[in-house]
Amino acid sequence: MKLHFVASEAPDAQAALKLMCARHTDVGADAADVVVALGGDGFMLQTLHNFLSRKKPIYGMNLGSVGFLMNEYRDEDLEQRLAAAESAQLHPLRMRAHGPRGVTEALAFNEVSLLRQTRQAAKLRILVDEKTRIAELICDGVLVSTPAGSTAYNLSAHGPILPIDADLLALTPISAFRPRRWRGALLSHRARVRFEILEAGKRPVSAVADDLEARDVDTVDVEEDRSVSMTMLFDAGHSLDERILAEQFVD
Question: Is there a single domain that holds both residue 175 and residue 125?
Answer without folding.
Answer: yes
